[in-house]
# Entry
Amino acid sequence: MRKITFLLAFVGLAMFSFGQTKITFESDAVGTSGGATAVWDGGTVGVIANAYPTGNSSTKVLHVQNNGYLGVHFSNVSIPASAQTVYSTLKVKYLIIGGSDTNYPSLEVYSSPNNYTMGATELIGTLPWASLWGNAEIGVWKTIEFTFASATLNPIPAGNLILKLTKSNTEYLIDDVELVPVPASGSIFTVSDFESNAINDVLNMRRYSPTDATATVEANPTDPSNKSVHILSTNWDSGLKLNVVLPVGKVLADYDRLTFDIYLNNISGTDQGYKNMQAWVDGTKVINIQNAGTANAWEAKSYPLESLAGANTFVFDLGLSTPAGNYYLDNIKLYLKDLGTGFENLNGNALMYSRNGSTLNFNQNIDNLVVYDVQGRNVISTKNVSDINMSKLSNGVYILKSEISGVKYITKLIK
# Structure
């Protein structure tokens, strides 16, 4: 198992990197542990050849035989203290092979300094039903995503990653463990955070009749200095209706992730904890995923968007499908492709830079190079270069996206 790190050096130019860490088992020998360890004595882990290439073309994966609520400790996946400020998401691929206890699992995520500790203070969070399956789909690769911002314990302790599938007897595979960095600010488009609205503003809703649902801007239930939208619904398929205008030159297909915060009011008469979160673009449903939610607490949600049709302007509806809903929404955002999710970093030694006036010199040839400003606009685009001239760019923050020998990486730089 490898952990790839990325270091940058500049002379006279401040620069910060936030590359993506991705763990695969391609360089590990079959029969080895791949850097993973079984916590306690509840089963075994080891690298095997991947016999399930549909949905995952890797040749090697980590095999887990869970015989007793086994936790898998990844010695090469380091979680820093307060990881939510560094990483946005943990992504892992799972495939269930079989076992006597496979349905409706939960996935517990820990940050532990050793491979025998999974205490309450080290628990980062839990994904009910593992966001994967009810009745397990045997032999099908699934990708789970844990959002660090939804961690229930704060601060997150420093340690190594432990993943515990809370089942007593399950045989499964793991692959492609990724820590996705917090994206650059220029890659995020805020659809609405409701701060520009007035308290008691009544917003439009997707609904069958005017009595089916209402949306009213109110003080945030946990922070009265901020605002959020309070939604009450009495019928299915209701949602907040927003008219979206993207930045100039952007269309919906340029974005590949939706995030927002949700707060479920756990009061008498509500029925919303396991209802589906739905979203529509110009009347077409694009998200329909069960949302367990956390009662009386804000929870960060993140959903992938795949090549959605949509122009620069469109109508976007978002809400829980429930006939007894009482919840708040806030901080609805879209993330640009690539810029929002990061890339694998360079293998081998650190990539070194130097600066000569306004020219940035690289220590090797860059096959493809694109520089974006914080608005997501392409300000430099070139191929097969070993340096770039920054003289025509004003001082500020830029995103540099590069490709060398097929490997992509992303870097935030400050001029």
